[in-house]
Amino acid sequence: MSAVMGAHEAVPQRLVSDLRNQVYPENGLDLFPGEGRVVGWQRIQKPSDKMEHPGSRMTAEKFLNRLPKCVIRQGEVIDVRGPIWDALQVRLAMAPPAFLGGFTINPSPAYQSSGLSGGSGLGPLRIAWMERALGCVHSIGAFQNCCPLPARIQEIVVETPALAAERERSQESPESPAPRLSMLRIKSENGEQAFLLLMRPEDTVGDLRALLAQARAVDAATFEIFSTFPPTVYHDDALTLQAAGLVPNVALLLRARQAPLPAPGPE
């Protein structure tokens, strides 16, 4: 018995160690080379792979659609999209987006012949608008992959009595309140041109038709003015723009006349 007790009364062993402050060095294993495979021999996607969702890329057309087509400042209709389009085409061909901040805008011949330039190049007001819009291009920096650019619609500003009166008012009495006006954008039959007309609400559909015929050098009886939503063809030339709901900003279309003109009634 004493021998057995002596065996159990031996020196006690430490069975628990405090390893909370123990530092374990990294083993330094290298990454497994190769792509790796999963069931079906599909390629495992790497973290460096880029994922692009359809429609997520900013394109030139999307950017231009966010800008106003034109603005009226001090009685002057300023085309916004046209010069920016020309500037983007030049810039994409000559410089990366980092160069956008110091670009000088030069209007194209088509822009100069449209009547927007006033025959004297870009004024300070136009330059301010262009620089503001081009600053947006610089901020998004997304135009390196926007080629080729889609064809641009030629926008033509039609000289109207309302536009001439507004220009005169802004020059002679700029402090006077601006009258209520309507801006109409009317696309040609082939969709290659868009006519911009600044008119008064009391002007008639006949006035609009006559201005379009004069600007296009065609007979007013050869085309129809219509809208797609709601689907309406504007036949009544005596109807005012206000009564027809063509205020304050409207987009319309032109097409070849499909119905014969009504015969005049007996007098």
Automatic annotation (TrEMBL):
SUPFAM superfamilies: Ubiquitin-like. It comes from the Eukaryota. InterPro entries: Ubiquitin-like_domsf, UBX_dom. Residues 177-254 form the UBX domain. One of its GO terms (biological process) is proteasome-mediated ubiquitin-dependent protein catabolic process. Pfam families: UBX. GO terms for molecular function: ubiquitin binding. This is UBX domain-containing protein 11.
